[in-house]
Amino acid sequence: MNTPYWQDVLISLRQIIRATDLQSKRIMKACGLTIPQVMVLRAIESLGDVTVKRISDQVSLSQATVTTILNRLEDKQFIERVRSAKDRRIVNARLTTSGTHMLNEVPPLLHDEFINRFESLERSEKESILDALKQVAGMMNAEKIDASPLLDIQAPIKEQNINKETDLRPGTAE
C-alpha cells in the first residue's frame, strides 16, 4: 500500500523543523544569541540607525517580538537606543562596537551545505522552491504566523541556573 503524499510532506516538514532547531542550538552554544537576535542585529547593521517598524519589516517578525529582542540585545550592550536628531519622538536602534564584534563571530544562520547547494541552483529552481514553501505555509494557514517561536530557543539550563543564583540577567553586571 502506498503512503499518501501528505504523509511524506509532513515527514519532510518535521525534518526541516528538526534541522532548524539543531542549527539554532548550535548558534546559541557558539555565541549565546538566538537566530532572531542575530537577524535583528544584521538588520540594524545593514539599515543603520533604524526604528522597530523598519526592523520588523526587514526580518518578518512582529514589532512586539522585535522590541523584546532589542531589550535583550540592549541588556547585552550589542545595541543602543538613540533619539532621532530630526524628530526627538522617534527612537532608533543602533549597533554598538560590541554588537559589530559579535556579528563577526556569529556562525552562519543556515547550514553551510544548504546555503552552498541552494545558491548553486538555477534562479528558476530557487523560485520554484520558495513558491512551493510559501504555498505549503498558506495551506497550513501559517503565512501570518510570527516565525520567532520556532527560531527562538531558551538560554541553556546552566546559564539560567547561574543567573538565578546571581539574580542577574544575561549580559549584565553589577
Automatic annotation (TrEMBL):
Entry-linked InterPro entries: HTH_MarR-typ, MarR/SlyA-like, WH-like_DNA-bd_sf, WH_DNA-bd_sf
Name used for this protein in its record: MarR family transcriptional regulator
Domain of life: Bacteria
Residue ranges of domain HTH marR-type in the record: 6-138
GO biological process, one term: response to stress
GO MF term set: DNA-binding transcription factor activity
PROSITE patterns: HTH_MARR_2
